[in-house]
Design goal:
The complex is a heterodimer of chains A (114) and B (110). Helix content of chain A is 0%, strand content 57%. By secondary structure, chain A is an all-beta fold. In chain A, the strands form 2 sheets. In chain A, strands 2, 4, 5, 6, 9, 10 and 11 form a 7-stranded mixed β-sheet that branches. A 4-stranded antiparallel β-sheet of chain A has the order 1-3-8-7, with no helix packed on it. Chain B has 110 residues and is an all-beta fold. Chain B has no helices and 11 strands. In chain B, the strands form 2 sheets. In chain B, strands 2, 4, 5, 9, 10 and 11 form a 6-stranded mixed β-sheet that branches. The chains are: A mainly beta (114), B mainly beta (110). At the A-B interface, strand 5 and strand 10 of A face strand 4, strand 5 and strand 9 of B.
Amino acid sequence: DAGITQSPRHKVTETGTPVTLRCHQTENHRYMYWYRQDPGHGLRLIHYSYGVKDTDKGEVSDGYSVSRSKTEDFLLTLESATSSQTSVYFCAIRGTGAPSYEQYFGPGTRLTVT
Amino acid sequence: KQEVTQIPAALSVPEGENLVLNCSFTDSAIYNLQWFRQDPGKGLTSLLLIQSSQREQTSGRLNASLDKSSGRSTLYIAASQPGDSATYLCAVSGANNLFFGTGTRLTVIP
């Protein structure tokens, strides 16, 4: 499982409240990713990080921010949650076996915004 | 923008049958292609990765092929088992991203 954990695993929150999801890895991988999975859309990239304090936007970054102050932790924050952000969120890391760069995924966080 | 399509969306087969899942993509400038398995309510498990310079990869009863020029990949599952029932996702790698298809939901009937 590439040593990836996500917390919380399930969360229900109200519209307008801030929410932070945590991804933790134990294998010192440089690249980390946040995806969301929605029916009919597959998985889509929200943000990614290529090192401590180095992050960039993905395809669906509006309404989300990220931070990475330590190699092992990548945080995803919804500043003011909306119902459209109800989804399953997956964290991933990129392996170091160049040039294959295989990605490995965490177990996911199911977020419901009411 | 890379578009990834998986057909069919769902497939039901009797146990023991060989089957093929299809994946197509619009931009042939990829780094690699990964096939994943996802069980209901669970995360993604990487099954096979094919580098852009390769034509196929095999792992046990699974064989994945890649034809970059035509933008196609197939996942062949031999002698299917009920435990193979899951959703299979195809993803192609850009420089810093994976672009996913919406998956094929496979049911293997005992």
